[in-house]
Each structure stands twice: as C-alpha cells, then as structure tokens.
Amino acid sequence: MVKAVVGANWGDEGKGKITDMLAEKADYIVRFQGGANAGHTIVNDYGKFALHTLPSGVFYDHTTSVIGNGVALNIPVLFNEIKSITDKGVPMPKIAVSDRAQIVMPYHIRFDEYEEERLGKASFGSTKSGIAPFYSDKYAKIGFQVSELFDDELLMEKIPRVCVQKNVILENLYKKPPIDEKKLLETLHEYRDMVAPYVCDTAVLLEQAIKDGKTVLLEGQLGTLKDPDHGIYPMVTSSSTLAAYGAIGAGIAPYEIKQIVTVVKAYSSAVGAGAFVSEIFGDEADELRRRGGDGGEFGATTGRPRRMGWFDCVASKYGCRLQGTTDVAFTVLDVLGYLDEIPVCVGYEIDGEVTTDFPVTSRLNKAKPVLEKLPGWKCDIRGIKKYDDLPENCRRYIEFVEEHIGYPITMISNGPGRNDIIYR
Ligand code: GDP
Predict the structure, then answer these.
(1) Is residue 416 within 6 Å of ligand 1 at its C-beta?
(2) pTM
(3) What pLDDT was estimated at residue 78?
(4) Which is the closest atom of ligand 1 to the Cα of 295?
C-alpha cells in the first residue's frame, strides 16, 4: 500500500508533522523530489528537528528512509543530518539512497548564489541551495548520478567535459574563478565515501516492499503552487511537487498510490517572491506570523520570515485537485484561536469578474481577494481529541473550508506534536 503526503499550498503546510504521524504505521518513507532547499520541522521525544534531506520517518526504528531517484541529493547535508540526529540520541536510522539520484555539485550552489546576485532585485528569492542549477543540468544531461561516483574512469572523462562549459559562464558572466577540476574530483571521492553505505537500487527495494504488503509513504516537499507546471510559474521550484511525480521520483508504478493525503494549512504562508492573493501586511501579519506554526512562521532552512495571509479557498481547491486528494489534513488550526473574526478568501476578482478557479500567473497577478468573515472561537483548542468537542465556530470554519475546497477533511491538526490530531 502506497500513500503520499503532499502540500496543497506554497509549502510549510505541516507535511513533516503529518508524515511523522503516519510513519508510525509505515515501513518505508520516501523522498521523491526536491532537495535541501526546504525543510520539515518535527517535534518528538528526542527534541525539535529541522530536516532538509532525510524523510520525516527517521525517528522510528521500524522504518527505512529512502532517498529516491527524483531527489536533488546534497551528500554533505545528508551526512551531517544523519550525524546531527544520532548525536542527539536517535538510534542510527536505516537509510537507502537511490543509485540513480543525482548529486548537487559544489558548483551548483555557487551558480545559484551568483545568479541571485546578478539578478539583484529581480531575483527569485532562491534559498541558494543549488536546486535550480542542479535540475537544469539534470535535464541538460550533464548531471552526475550517485552510481557514477563509483566509476573513476567515467569521472575523469566527464569532469573536464562539463567544466569547460561551466567555466565559460563563471569567468565571463559572473567574473568568478573557474572550477578547480582536481579539487572537484577529490570532493567527489569524499562524497562517494560518505554515501557508499546507503546506495542501492531503491526501485527494486520498493517493488519488493509493495509485493510484501508493506506500507510505503511518499513524502512531498513544498506544495502544488510551487510545481513547475501547475504552480505560479516562474516563482516555482524546479521539480514537481505533485503526488503523481511520486511514482517517477520513487520509481514505482503510478497505480500503486492508493491514498493521497493533501496537507492544507488553516491560514496561508509563503516564502520567496510571487503572487499571493490573500496576503496580509503590517501588524495583522506580524501577529499571525508570531503566533503561527510552532514558535513563529520563519523558514526551517533559512530562518526568513514567511509572508502571511488568510486562508485561500481558490488556491487550496486547485491545490487539492492537482494532487488527486483522497484526504485533507487541515493543520495549525489552533493558531487561529486568538481572532474575533477570521477572514477567508472565497474568490478572486480579476478585471471586474469573480472566479473560484485558480488562474495562470499573468491573470493571477491582477487578482484581488474576495473575503468573507467567519466568527472566531476565541479559545485554545490544543489537547482536544474529538471533533464534536471542538467549539461550534471552529467546526463551522472547518466545514466552510471543506465545502469551498470540495475535498474531505479527515484529519485536523491542533498542535505541533505527533498526537495533536483529530480524526474525523
Ligand atoms: P512542512 O515543510 O510542510 O513540513 O512544514 P513546516 O516544517 O514548516 O511545519 C510548519 C510548522 O508548524 C512546524 O514548526 C510544525 O512543528 C508546526 N506545526 C505543524 N502542525 C501544527 C499544528 O497543527 N499546530 C501548530 N501550532 N503547529 C503545527
């Protein structure tokens, strides 16, 4: 049985917590896309962790954590992440890294930095983790697969071939020093030694797991609105954030994905540039940011303050549809307990007309939010375990959202901990 946990919005919906929770009954947790540019925050008995590369299941001793072929693998980050969790007393996790995953090279990170610097104000707000240059190279067919680290003859031919082109850009466009090929080979040898204990054909591993009736969880990074095809292009990420891509990025058959849990946040937040129709500013935004998430809405990887907004039914309905949602997990609802009234974006006004269909970016940039206000519940809902025990106005909010997005909310998260969950 394969399940996916994915985001409907701009990322940071709380997928880490939901994955961690579902991982209790899973055997394999698989990262299938993205890289170390975003992170999941997990709170458990060992402490609070920000994971960037490892899947959220690493804290259980019964699960195997898989880095699928679709991931942008930063080997030193993976290595240090493993160390940081074992240093805090977490037992050494079982980890499998796909031999087909490609490697984030040191020059990908440099290119990311230099390009953001060159673009200045027009930059994409990249986290400078090398993700865009990495995926460009993957599709330009000059990327390095993990398996290639074990073939010195290949590396010695390929490094100079790739560097010729990179160095022209480094020296002429960015006016920076060229790549030192000898040092690069040494670095790749270090990467090889770091990753060697974990490398295998993860698609075969997962095929066997499915045959044996094991539970496999696919863990997505970011959300629908950051998908390169269906998101707010060009302010998107460089790999697909959709559950459908889980089949490709993990190397499994698409029809094996039986449950798609789409994580939807009870209000909106976003990092980086791009249209954000229900965005709020000033004191209103500061208060929500300060109260949001678990200790404030600041990036897990970068520490950047997140942009804040009210719940967006248009974006979330679209986000759930493109994921192929079977279940919605509605998160961080407890945070809204301070508000007298809660505005919700129920439509977009574009050129004088109201729509509830999420538009292409050029039209999205013109959209103004149509807001409806719902009464707040003015109390702390943390610790509540049963749906019927939630305050009436809180249930009204949930049911209003469910009706507007059109997908069933089967889980409600009312706190950052693993057990802060209400099944419906
Ligand atoms: P992800 O990238 O989708 O996993 O999202 P984040 O790691 O940014 O998670 C959002 C933050 O919200 C983290 O600090 C979580 O611990 C926290 N969080 C998750 N669910 C809840 C919830 O229901 N209530 C509260 N207050 N915090 C939550």
Answers:
(1) yes
(2) 0.94
(3) 95
(4) 14
